Every structure is written in C-alpha cells, then in structure tokens.
Amino acid sequence: MKLYPALISRLENQHEAIASIIASADEARLKKEIRPGKWSIHENIVHLVKYQPVFIDRLHIILTHPEPIFEAYVADNDPEFEEWKKWDNERLMNALQKDRQAILHLVTTLPEEKLARIGIHKKYGRLSIVQWTEFFLLHEAHHMFTIFQLANTIIN
C-alpha cells in the first residue's frame, strides 16, 4: 500500500484554504447559526481542529493493535468540544497547522507495510492507514464546503 501524490498534496495543503474562505467573515458571522439547529462556521472549524488529535490517536492505535474497531467520532459527544468552542480563531488555526504537521509527518514516514495496517470503522469497514487518511481528508473537505456555504450565504 502506497501513498499517492494527490493524497500527500491534500494532506499538506487542503486545510490552508480555510483561512481564505473565512477571510471576509467577521466574528459575528463566524459564530452565527445561519442554518437553524446546525453548526456555525466557528463550530465547523472547531470540529475539524478537534478531530485531528483524535485521528492521530486512531493512527497510533492502528499501528499498535491488530485491527482495532472504531465508532464514528461524534463531536457533540466529546466533552472537550465545548471547551474548544471557546477558543478564538487564531488559536484554532495554530492548532490546525501544528496537528496537521504531525499527521503529515506520521503518515509520510511510515513504511508501506505499516500503511497497509487495518483499522475497522463501524460504518465503513476495514480501512488501511492510506484509506483512513483519504477518509480524513474527504471528511475535512465536506466541512470546508459547509464553511464555504455558510460564509457566502446571503442573509436577509
């Protein structure tokens, strides 16, 4: 199992688009619940930042345990999520960058046999570390699209 160039490139750079997407949004817009009952821009960003250490932990578990099983991560069930929602945008972006560098280093320095190790997701089944990384990036891209939509929705 090998990492492919598009995966590495997205892992290096995808998250950096968040700052550009929200550049014109003021603090009120970041915190506004634009879709009733759904997360704000800020809460989506907190979720992405908070999930990175969870992902790092999962990778370490996959590397040290035979085929561990993981439930879907639900931020609203994470007791730290509420605390992280108090963080300002600068702190969030710094944490996002720091943890992304850790993920990038971890994944890109693994030998092929380690990249093939399996972790089982309750919904998606047996995934290699390469597939977990793809899943991580697609999940992030989904939230980034949501952030884009929220940042650009016309509010009447």
UniProtKB/TrEMBL annotation:
<dbReference type="Pfam" id="PF12867">
    <property type="entry name" value="DinB_2"/>
</dbReference>
<feature type="domain" description="DinB-like">
    <location>
        <begin position="11"/>
        <end position="144"/>
    </location>
</feature>
<dbReference type="InterPro" id="IPR024775">
    <property type="entry name" value="DinB-like"/>
</dbReference>
<protein>
    <submittedName>
        <fullName>DinB family protein</fullName>
    </submittedName>
</protein>
